[in-house]
Design brief:
heterodimer, A: alpha+beta, Immunoglobulin-like, 5-stranded mixed beta sheet, 12 strands, 19% strand, B: Cytochrome Bc1 Complex, Chain D, domain 2, 2 strands
Chain lengths: 321, 172
């Protein structure tokens, strides 16, 4: 069957036709069934049309529906109704199966923002709460319940390899659950037009073993340490003295603004700017200096830093593992 | 056909300038006092780069709440800081003066944001602050708030004739 897997170098796979979990598999099998039945119906209709057009009556005769015609019409209508009811029932069943999450699932909260995703793992005690951005880590083979909210406009969470779409509506909390059965990196994308940079609003989902997920979560709980290196220490001063601090948080420093993504563990993330660029030193430098070239309309302003300051800032950001 | 042409002409969108380098006003561009040795300089030396742009004003409105201007000035009605929606301007109503107030700070508590907020964003904030007392064109001022409304939209602000006022002397 058709399997077109998009080859995305650095932001995970993105295909509804190659399911990586039971929810996506249900959607996939429903889709396969619908399209096979639809193809058979289309073939039958085309065959009937061809037959009718090739066996035209020579003379116009008064219209009279014979018993044979009536049987065909009633049969076709009946078959159509039955097929549609079967489709309806299967749709309903799939919808229900996707709606009700099992107990003991991993809880995550995702908030859509123009144009990035804030990912929060609630903690007990609350100081264990983890906030990151544009990257969702999940353990393989365990159900994950994602609570969805938005702080500005309507967005839509869509990881096609794992499950279908669910809208993020300001003022409402929706939820969706899925399970990744294969380890790997999957791409989720905003699927509801949300403004200028809607297309560059991707989320990377990393499915990994329970052990490495726990290790990742424990590392994310840490605050940032003051770097030992003098260049990086100067970078921290640059961060705290320039416009960065107006919007970003780095836990462990006085920077605590919640407007932009939390940068406490920036260097551990694989992408920057919501899956727009791979997280390398060069891309980070370009992004800091002039985000409007890369993502026009993005809420991050240009930061004309002096070369030495930028160098130090990059050295500091690279320590945020 | 004519209707189609007219309709397509009506669809022209305002340009959102994401990538221009808004400059801070030249120092001393605006006089705060009439007393000046030598010949008078023009007080309208610099045009506000964003005041005719609805998107920029709405960005200013977003920044106004995100940078917590409301912490002192409330939603324009004032609190710890002076109100911004009335006609009284202690340091001048001209865009350059509002820019200078945000960038350089003012006595009695207004911090200087110039090192932390870029010129583009300060211009956007200045445009929004002026829209609160009806000093930007009606079609540019924000018409509604995304959150619960505490007052009518800036679009409905009566056009105020700005009056300059000397800052109040500090309490004895």
């Amino acid at each position: 069957m058709t399997r077109f897997v998009l080859a995305l170098q650095w932001s995970g796979r993105h295909s509804a036709l190659d399911p990586a979990g039971p929810q996506a598999a249900r959607i996939d099998s429903l889709w396969q069934f619908l399209w096979i039945v639809s193809a058979v119906v289309l073939a039958a209709v085309v065959a009937a049309l061809l037959y009718a057009s090739l066996h035209r009556r020579r003379h116009a005769e008064p219209e009279q529906a014979g018993a044979g015609t009536r049987t065909v019409v009633i049969g076709a209508v009946g078959l159509t109704v039955v097929i549609l009811l079967v489709f309806l029932g299967l749709n309903f069943g799939t919808g229900r199966a996707l709606t009700i999450p099992p107990d003991g699932a991993v809880q995550v909260r995702i908030t859509g923002k123009q144009w990035w995703w804030e990912v929060t793992y609630p903690g007990n005690p609350p100081s264990y709460q983890v906030t990151t951005a544009n990257e969702l880590h999940v353990p393989v083979g365990e159900p994950v319940v994602v609570e969805l909210g938005s702080s500005d406009v309507i967005h839509s969470f869509w990881p096609p390899d794992l499950v279908g779409k669910r809208d993020l509506i300001p003022g409402e909390t929706a939820s969706i659950w899925f399970q990744a059965d294969r380890a790997g990196e999957y791409r989720a994308q905003c699927a509801e037009y949300c403004g200028h940079q809607h297309a560059k609003m991707a989320l990377l989902i990393v499915a990994e073993s329970r052990d490495s997920f726990d290790r990742w979560l424990a590392r994310q709980r840490d605050s940032a340490r003051t770097p030992a290196d003098s260049l990086a220490r100067r970078g921290q001063e640059v961060f705290l003295a320039s416009s960065c601090v107006m919007c970003h948080t780095i836990r462990g420093t006085p920077a605590g603004s919640r407007i932009g993504p939390d940068l406490t563990h920036l260097a551990s993330r694989r992408t920057i700017a919501a899956g727009t660029l791979p997280n390398t030193r060069g891309h980070l430098a370009g992004w800091i200096l002039d985000p409007q070239r890369i993502k026009p309309g993005s809420r991050m302003p240009a930061n004309p830093l002096a070369a030495g300051d930028l160098e130090a800032l990059l050295a500091y950001l690279e320590t945020l593992q | 056909m004519t209707a189609l042409l007219a309709a397509s002409a009506a669809c022209e969108r305002e340009t959102r300038r994401f990538h221009d380098e808004a400059q801070p006003p030249a120092a001393g561009g605006v006089r705060l006092t009439a007393l000046e040795p030598g010949p008078a300089t023009s007080s309208r030396a610099l045009r506000h780069p964003y005041e005719d742009n609805a998107w920029a004003v709405s960005e200013g409105k977003r920044l106004y709440s995100q940078f917590n201007c409301a912490g002192c000035h409330a939603h324009g009605g004032g609190g710890m800081g002076p109100p911004l929606m009335d006609a009284l301007w202690r340091y001048g109503a001209e865009p350059e003066n509002v820019f200078a107030s945000i960038a350089g700070g003012r006595p009695n508590g207004m911090p200087a944001f110039g090192t932390k907020v870029g010129a583009t964003q300060i211009w956007q904030l200045a445009a929004y602050v002026r829209s609160m007392s009806g000093l930007v064109p009606k079609d540019v001022a924000p018409g509604r708030t995304d959150h619960m409304q505490v007052k009518a939209g800036e679009q409905a602000a009566p056009e105020a004739v700005p009056r300059n006022a000397a800052p109040e002397p500090p309490a004895p």
